[in-house]
Each structure stands twice: as structure tokens, then as C-alpha cells.
Write a structure and sequence with these properties.
The complex is a heterotrimer of chains A (330), B (267) and C (277). Chain A is built from eleven helices and 13 strands. With 330 residues, chain A is α/β, with parallel strands linked by helices. Chain B has helices spanning 3-19, 22-50, 58-78, 80-83, 85-90, 95-99, 105-110, 119-135, 144-173, 181-190, 200-209, 212-215, 217-223, 236-239, 242-265. Classes of the chains: A alpha/beta (330), B mainly alpha (267), C mainly alpha (277).
């Protein structure tokens, strides 16, 4: 029995439509036109305890709708959803006591209150027994290196510090399931690495189920064994990142620095993408011709100074995937 | 930790946060005091000219005035979360965060902020009431103290209920509704004078539609042992503040509908 | 021609702010409802007081009622607080950036204050006059509504006096702005201005109701020109030369406060320049 069970989940919003301009506003007072927006179309998936799943998709694709339904603050139009046997929106209080949520762009801590006092208040809100609270808190403070910011009001913290406090706050009550929405947004490189490292650790060492929503593909690549892609209200892909990549972009890039002027190259299964003085950028399908073979072929025919192979940018993979499925934003 | 204890913690945290800015707190409290006391200066000037209104002298009116000021100061202080609900929670989606906690959202909104600066209005109310005491020689009912205490409690319940209704409305309109100020601030202003001075249609609104008269006028009459010039029975006075609690109950009931709507429309 | 060009940026900011504030129709409507209620309360209170005998009343009940409705109509002219844009600037420390504009800072802010008050008054005044001045008489409640000016002369002088109100109000707003910038805090002046303005302008209760001994002082102070003087002109309590004197007093105070404000703002800005804002 998976921890999270989603079956034929659908959500349709009614949005009031109004013509533009003053006449439209006046008309809008008397007659409302409604537009149906299908945010989720019979979506199904299951997540087992301890998985770390990346949830990606273009904006407006249905990601936040899914998260909201799973967390219990939104009711679906139809379909079934259970988390640890509880129906999130029906048994809200019980359910939310067992989850932690981090919103990357909003803090749940109190702006003018020192961090530690905010933690204490959360302990009371979640009714955590004192001894368990102290243990959880001290562990989190150590892991996230918060000892020096504990007594500062949240408004004085940098974004990186605030996000680490945010994550600690979401885990104080030791939830078995955690939703992370854009946890690394706006962070500098060291902070991103620290956050990623921490997420990976709690998932590995404590078996906390993590659902990670992000636009930063490096987060996905670093953490998620499984990726669910949502586009246009439907699931476009559900598998490992590698399967996704392989399915979309059977392509790698080869950069060759020639000793002299870059020659004209005419090889089967190879496309010249860019020519820049003595460098050629080639695109090839590794299924058709393996990288070593291609390198050997070129080096045999020409004098070469340097060669390196590159994967396409993850963003390119994802963008290409969205395109292929007509799921791009807007 | 049960609801009351949690509320206590919220209050302590809120007080600490405000006292972190002592100068600002002092200024705002002083401002709140001055704005309200200045209104009473106007009342004083009118009495100096006319002597009495509706059969009441300045001291007696001061009792009513002080009572409603005290009630509103308390209600205004605790209801901040509901007052700013639309613009701070609904429009920004911050309400989601309240729903993600295993507690009643109403309790969390109650604990949002205890507006300490309302102490300015509270001080003004107490001062005016004390002035009224000093200026009058009334035959107070032996039950005056509990009656007035009940009136204050019912009054705070009533006005808080108005703030809750204002917040419930913003589930539909998204912004904080300034119009609702008519009932809250406007209600307080109306109850500053004993209700018999107003035209009867106005009075009826304030007793039956929004029972502000039940938490100020009627109990005060009972407390000072005066018969109602409008002819209501004597036993109504001490019991009337219950209407405030009923009103709050009604407000919280409609509040639930608002939350259901938020949860199904996704705001 | 060059004169007009020199005025241009100030006209531009005036027009821009006017348009922006006029967009807040919902706010105007909500404000109207609130003010209507408060107007009704005050009218009923006056009626109750007068019902007990108007022997000592300094004005007729009709005039007191007219005064009340006028007060609600033009409420937004009262300089209760600093310009919200300036409050925001003080809060996030961006005041110094105002000096980057190739304009006279005082005049710039003054134009903005003018636009802000005019834009907030126009819709509310229109609604209030429509309701209390037209609708109420139409349903037979004219006795409780806004009476017309006491004469054509009064109407004309009232219009002139309103200009005085606008100029004076903006000058006082500017002083509050300067205090805000000088103290670099958005609390003090904003918290205290409201009560002082309400009382001394005659908004809480017409100045005539205060003890007679205080009359000359109350009439002479700057805030009287915001409410008491123009409304007294409207229903003829101040007529002829006294009306003109009242208007002159409004403008005299406006001028004086503008001069004071300009000088003070200059000093504060210079200090900011030295300290680094």
C-alpha cells in the first residue's frame, strides 16, 4: 500500500470572465460569464514511503494544484486521494499534523520574533512533546548550522539563513512526509548545496518521503530518483530522470579544437552545430555512433588539440520535453 | 497544548514583538488616545451649550461613552487578524499556511496580533467612564458590577463577531472590506450616546439588526437603575449582552462556509 | 514658453497622481458608505441636542446639519497623515533618491499632495452632494439634508475658500512630510496629526460651539481654514468682508506654512546629503 495514493484526480476551476474596459465592467455587474479551467485531468500515481520525488512542469500546469490537494487545503472535483489512509481535505487537522511544507517564497516564521521563539511556538501549535521537540530541534540546528542565527529575528536573516530556518521549522514535528516548493529559489551557490545535501540526508537516513517542486533542474538531478512531469493538467512522464532525458534528447555535443582552421566535416549521423575559428561543435546521437568511435574517427583524419563531450543543458532537455508534449507555458 | 494555552503563547509573542519597537508603540498608543479623547472634547462642548440631551446630562452620557469605548478597544485589539484578513491572508494566499497547521484557523487569526496600541482608546474609555462616575450621583443597582462585566464580555463578543463577518466577506471579495467599518467603527460611534436620543428607526437597527444596544444601552440602564425611556422591560437589561455571544456564534458559523468556499475554489 | 516648460514636470506629476488615485473607485464607494453613516449619526445627535432647546445654540439646526454634510463630503481634504508615498520612502530609506530628480523637491511633493487630496475628495464629494444635497430633498428629507449655499455670493466665496482649503491642506501635509523625513520615522507625526487637525479644524464639532471666550483664538489658528471658515462662508455665517477676511487668512496661513516647509525641507535635505540618507 503506497503512502500516497492518487486515483483519477481531477480539479476544474470556475473563473469569472469579464470583458475589458468600462462597458465590460458595467456588464460584469449584471451578468457573469464563467470559464471552466481543467487544472487536473484524471491524474493517477502512487508514492511509497521514503521516496524522493521531483514534481516538475511548466507554470500553470497543475503542479501547485496537485500539491494543494495532497496537502489538504484544496478539494478536488472528483477522484480519490489518500495519504497514509487519510483523506487530506476531509481529515485536515489529522493530516496536516503529519506533514511538513516549505514554500520557497513565503516564510511561516514570525517576522519580528527570534527564530528560536518561532520554533517554540510551532512546538505548541503542533503539540510536540517537549523531549522529542528538544531532540528534533537540536538535531536540525546542528545539521543546518543554525546555532548562530537562533536568537535573531527572522527579518534580519539573509535569504539563505531564512530558508534553512524554514526547512528546520517544517521538520520540527518530525513529519513522515514533506512538501518542498521551490526550496532553493534565490539562494546563493553554497546555500543551494547545503539545502540539497540536507534534503538528501533526511530522505536517506530518516526515510522521510519528500515531494520536491522546483524549476531548478540541478535540484532534480542531484536529488530525485523519480520525476513526475505534469503538463496541461496531465502526467506527461513518470520515471527516472535518465529515462526522461533519453526519451527526449538522443543527443550529445562534441567540442573539437583543431590545430589549424576547423575543416569541413561530413560524417553520417553527425551535425555541425557551430563553427568558431578552430573549434567545431558537433551534435551526434550516441545510440547511432558511440562517443569513443566518433572521436577516433575524427582524430584519425585530422590533427586535433583538444576534445570534450557535453550533455545538453538540463533546462534544454526539459524545455524540449515540454515542447514535444505541447505543454509549454502560455 | 490546548487552544487557550496556545492563545496565551500567541499573545505573549505578539506583545514581545510590539515592545521591540518601544518608541513606535508609545507614539501609536498616544495617537490612539488623542484621537478618541478629542471626540469626547466635542461632546463636552455640546453639553456646555445645551446642558442635556434626551434627558441625559454629560456625566451620564460619559458612562455610556466610556463603556462602549472600553468594549471596542478590547475587541479591536484582539480582532486584528480578522480586520486585515482580506488583504493580508486571502489576497496573498497566506491563508494556506494557516490551513496547513493542525489548528483552527480562527484561533490562529485571533493570535495573529494583539494590538497593544489600542490601550490608547482603552485609557480614554476608562477616563471618560471615571469622569462620568465623578460627575454623577446615581442610585447604582447592587448588581451593577456583574452586569457591566457581562456587558463588556458580550460587547467584545459582538464586535469581534462583526470583525469575523468582515473577514468572511473577504473570502468572496478578496480585499479587506472598508465598508464593514460602518458596522464596527460606526457601531461604536453610534453607541456613544444612549440610544433613546436617536430616531426610532436608527435605534431599531442598533438593537435588532446588529445588537449593539444590547451590550451597551440596555445593560447600562439596568446598572444605573434607570428605566428605559423607550419602554423596554426591566429584566432585559442584565440579560441582553447574551445577544453578543449569539452574534459571535452566528459569525463563526458563517465563517465555516467561507473556509469551505476557499478550499473548493482554491482562491 | 520656457516658463510653461519649467512648470511641466509639476503639472505632469499632478495629473499622474490624480489619475492613479481616481482609479480607486471601490475605495471611494466604501468611504462614501462609512461617511454616510457617520453623517447620519452626527445629524441625529444634533437634532437630539436641539430638541432640548436651542436658546444657546450658536447656529441654527439647519446650518449645523449642513455643516455636518459638508464635513463628510470634504473629509478627504483633512491632512491627517503624511503622503503615503513619502511614508514608504522613509520606511525603506529611499528619500535621498528624490534628489536625483531635476526638480525642486518641495514643489514636487506639493504638487503630489495637491493631486492626492483632490483625487480623493472628488468622487466622495460628488457622491455626498448627490445624496445629501439632491436625493434627500427629493424624497422629502430636505430638512435633514445638505442645504444649498445661502446666496450666490456665498457660493462664489465658498468656491474660492475651497481653493484655500486645498492649498492649506497641502501645506500642512508637507509639514507632516518634513517631520517624517526629519525624524526618519513613520510613526510620530502620523499618529498625532489626526487628532490635532480634527479638533482645531472644526471637524469634531463646529468651532462656534466652543466657549465664546476661545472664539478669537480658534478662528485665528491655521486649522480653522480647513473646515470652519469655508463652511461658515457657505451658509453665510461669514459673509461679505468677514468672508473675504476668512479666505485671506486661509491663504496667509498656507503661504506661511509653505515658506516654513520649504525652508525646513531644505535644511533636512542638506543634512541628508551630508549624512548619506
Amino acid at each position: 500500500m503506497p503512502q500516497i495514493l492518487v486515483e483519477e484526480l481531477s480539479k476544474t476551476y470556475r473563473i469569472a470572465e469579464r470583458d475589458a474596459g468600462t462597458m465590460g465592467a458595467v456588464k460584469g455587474l449584471f451578468h457573469r460569464r464563467w470559464r471552466q479551467v481543467e487544472a487536473l485531468k484524471a491524474v493517477s500515481f502512487g508514492i511509497a514511503q521514503g521516496e524522493l520525488v521531483g514534481l516538475i512542469g511548466p507554470n500553470g500546469a497543475g503542479k501547485s494544484t496537485t500539491i494543494k490537494i495532497l496537502s489538504g487545503i484544496l478539494e478536488p472535483t472528483s477522484g480519490r486521494c489518500e495519504v497514509d489512509g487519510l483523506v487530506p481535505w476531509r481529515q485536515r487537522v489529522k493530516h496536516v499534523a503529519r506533514i511538513g511544507v516549505v514554500f520557497g517564497q513565503r516564510t511561516q516564521l514570525w517576522w519580528d520574533l527570534p527564530v528560536i521563539e518561532g520554533f517554540d511556538l510551532l512546538r505548541d501549535i503542533y503539540r510536540v512533546p517537549q523531549d522529542r521537540y528538544v531532540q528534533a530541534r537540536d538535531e536540525l540546528v546542528a545539521l543546518l548550522r543554525l546555532d548562530r542565527v537562533l536568537n535573531q529575528p527572522v527579518r534580519q536573516l539573509s535569504l539563505g539563513q531564512r530558508m534553512r530556518c524554514e526547512i528546520a521549522a517544517a521538520l520540527l514535528h518530525e513529519p513522515p512526509l514533506v512538501f518542498l516548493d521551490e526550496p532553493t529559489i534565490g539562494l546563493d551557490a553554497p546555500s543551494k548545496l547545503a539545502v540539497r545535501e540536507f534534503i538528501g540526508r533526511i530522505n536517506r537516513d530518516r526515510g522521510v518521503t519528500v515531494i520536491l517542486t522546483t524549476h531548478d533542474m540541478h535540484d532534480i538531478e542531484a536529488l530525485a530518483e523519480r520525476v513526475i512531469v505534469i503538463g496541461g493538467g496531465a502526467i506527461l512522464a513518470d520515471g527516472t530522470f535518465e529515462t526522461l532525458r533519453a526519451g527526449v534528447l538522443a543527443e550529445r555535443r562534441l567540442f573539437v579544437d583543431f590545430t589549424g582552421e576547423a575543416p569541413a566535416l561530413d560524417l553520417p549521423d553527425v551535425t555541425v552545430v557551430n563553427r568558431d575559428g578552430r573549434q567545431l561543435e558537433l551534435a551526434f546521437d550516441p545510440r547511432r555512433i558511440a562517443a569513443p568511435a566518433l572521436i577516433a574517427r575524427i582524430a584519425a583524419a585530422h590533427s586535433v588539440d583538444d576534445i570534450h563531450v557535453e550533455e545538453p543543458l538540463i533546462e534544454e532537455v526539459i524545455a524540449r520535453f515540454y515542447d514535444l508534449h505541447g505543454a509549454s507555458e502560455g | 497544548m490546548n487552544g487557550f494555552a496556545l492563545y496565551g503563547r500567541y499573545v505573549l509573542a505578539s506583545i514581545r514583538m510590539q515592545l521591540a519597537y518601544p518608541a513606535s508603540f508609545a507614539m501609536l498608543s498616544l495617537g490612539s488616545f488623542l484621537v478618541t479623547i478629542v471626540e469626547f472634547v466635542g461632546v463636552w462642548a455640546l453639553f456646555r451649550r445645551f446642558g442635556q440631551v434626551g434627558g441625559w446630562r454629560l456625566g451620564e452620557v460619559a458612562l455610556f461613552y466610556g463603556l462602549v469605548s472600553v468594549i471596542f478597544a478590547f475587541a479591536d485589539a484582539v480582532s486584528r487578524g480578522f480586520d486585515v484578513f482580506g488583504s493580508t491572508f486571502v489576497k496573498t494566499g497566506a491563508f494556506d499556511r494557516l490551513l496547513l497547521r493542525p489548528r483552527s484557523p480562527a484561533l490562529q487569526l485571533l493570535g495573529y496580533e494583539l494590538r497593544m496600541t489600542r490601550i490608547g482608546r482603552l485609557t480614554q474609555g476608562v477616563l471618560v467612564f471615571w469622569l462620568g462616575l465623578a460627575m454623577t450621583h446615581l442610585h447604582w443597582s447592587p448588581w451593577a458590577a456583574p452586569i457591566l462585566l457581562f456587558a463588556v464580555m458580550g460587547g467584545v463578543a459582538l464586535f469581534s463577531g462583526l470583525f469575523v463577518m468582515q473577514a468572511t466577506l473577504s473570502f468572496w471579495t478578496v480585499e479587506s472590506l472598508e465598508v464593514a467599518n460602518v458596522l464596527t467603527y460606526g457601531g461604536e460611534a453610534a453607541a456613544e450616546f444612549p440610544l433613546n436620543v436617536y430616531a426610532s428607526w436608527f435605534r431599531d437597527i442598533l438593537v435588532f439588526a446588529v445588537p449593539i444596544g444590547c451590550v451597551t444601552y440596555l445593560p447600562m440602564l439596568a446598572a444605573i437603575g434607570r428605566a428605559d425611556p423607550l419602554g423596554s422591560p426591566a429584566w432585559i437589561g442584565p440579560l441582553a449582552p447574551a445577544a453578543g455571544f449569539l452574534f459571535l456564534g452566528l459569525a463563526l458559523f458563517t465563517w465555516r462556509f467561507g473556509i469551505r468556499r476557499y478550499a473548493s475554489s482554491g482562491a | 514658453m520656457s516658463q510653461a516648460l519649467a512648470l511641466c514636470p509639476y503639472l505632469a506629476v499632478f495629473a499622474g497622481r490624480l489619475q492613479l488615485t481616481l482609479q480607486y473607485r471601490a475605495a471611494a464607494l466604501a468611504g462614501f458608505a462609512t461617511q454616510l453613516w457617520f453623517g447620519v449619526i452626527r445629524v441625529l445627535i444634533f437634532a437630539a441636542f436641539y430638541a432640548g432647546g436651542a436658546a444657546h445654540a450658536p447656529m441654527s439646526l439647519t446650518n449645523a446639519i449642513t455643516y455636518t454634510w459638508l464635513g463628510q463630503a470634504f473629509l478627504a481634504f483633512l491632512p491627517w497623515s503624511a503622503d503615503p508615498e513619502i511614508t514608504e520612502m522613509v520606511r525603506n530609506g529611499a528619500v535621498a533618491y528624490e534628489r536625483l530628480r531635476p526638480v525642486d523637491t518641495y514643489a514636487w511633493w506639493y504638487a503630489r499632495a495637491l493631486a492626492w487630496s483632490v483625487a480623493r475628495v472628488l468622487p466622495r464629494a460628488a457622491l455626498m452632494v448627490a445624496f445629501a444635497g439632491v436625493a434627500m430633498p427629493l424624497v422629502g428629507l430636505g430638512r435633514w439634508g445638505l442645504a444649498p449655499p445661502s446666496s450666490f455670493a456665498a457660493a462664489g466665496l465658498f468656491a474660492a475658500s475651497l481653493v484655500g482649503v486645498v492649498a492649506l491642506s497641502a501645506a500642512i501635509t508637507q509639514l507632516i512630510n518634513v517631520i517624517l523625513v526629519a525624524t526618519m520615522s513613520d510613526r510620530g507625526a502620523n499618529a498625532l496629526a489626526g487628532s490635532v487637525v480634527n479638533l482645531f479644524s472644526g471637524m469634531v464639532v463646529p468651532l462656534a460651539f466652543f466657549p465664546d471666550a476661545l472664539r478669537p483664538w480658534l478662528r485665528a489658528q491655521p486649522f480653522a481654514g480647513l473646515v470652519d471658515i469655508p463652511f461658515s462662508i457657505y451658509f453665510g455665517a461669514l459673509a461679505g468682508w468677514s468672508a473675504i477676511g476668512g479666505i485671506a487668512l486661509q491663504f496667509a496661513w498656507a503661504m506661511g506654512l509653505i515658506v516654513l516647509g520649504r525652508w525646513w525641507l531644505g535644511a533636512v535635505m542638506r543634512r541628508l546629503q551630508v549624512q548619506g540618507g
